[in-house]
Amino acid sequence: MTMQRLKCKKRTLFQGAALLLSALMLAYGISRGELETVWNKAVNICLECIGLG
Prior knowledge:
With 53 residues, the protein is an all-alpha fold. The protein has helices at 3-31, 34-50.
């Protein structure tokens, strides 16, 4: 295996691990009820600061 192919494999493995970790962290946050908190904050920012609505 050439050095270039090895680097590409390591990069792909790292990207897959990062994606899996991100999905797990999202699922954990949703299971704790954080989704509603974040949504409410986003709505308040739009309505108060930006002036939409």
